[in-house]
Amino acid sequence: MGTCHCSRCRKVGASTIVFVRKEDLRWVEGQEHVQLFQPKAPYKYERCFCKICGTSLGEILSDMDSFPIAANALDSDLEVRNSLHEFVDEKPSWYEICDDAKQSKGHPATS
Q: Of 17, 20, 26, 82, which has the fewest beta carbons less than 10 angstroms from its beta carbon?
């Protein structure tokens, strides 16, 4: 789980995301109601949302092995906790980071 503070994630209401392995995602119903938003440059990540209720779903239609889903779209309680904050330089002044998770100015470095 991580929190992105970039303006794009904040505006779609999907700042806190949970990374899901494609092999662990099981569609029960409703995939036909997912709409894909294609961003314009400089943004590159496609975003999904429900055509019926407008809920932001992150990158749930991604072909990647692992992808982010908006944590607020999940109904069940999550056992994971926030482990990172990215794009903290874009964080609005009214938002306070209140945990000890790692912070980065952009996407965190991958090892």
A: 26
89 and 105 in contact (C-beta within 8 Å)? yes
Return d(Cα 43, Cα 9) in angstroms, integer: 11
Spatial separation of the C-alpha atoms in residues 74 and 77, rounded to whole Å: 8
Please state the domain extents for the chain. 2-103
Q: What is the pTM of this model?
A: 0.79
Alpha carbons 38 and 111: distance in angstroms, whole number: 28
Helices (H) and strands (E) in the chain, counts: 1, 8
Q: What is the CATH number of domain 2-103?
A: 3.90.1590.10
With beta carbons less than 8 A apart as the criterion, state whether 84 and 3 touch: yes
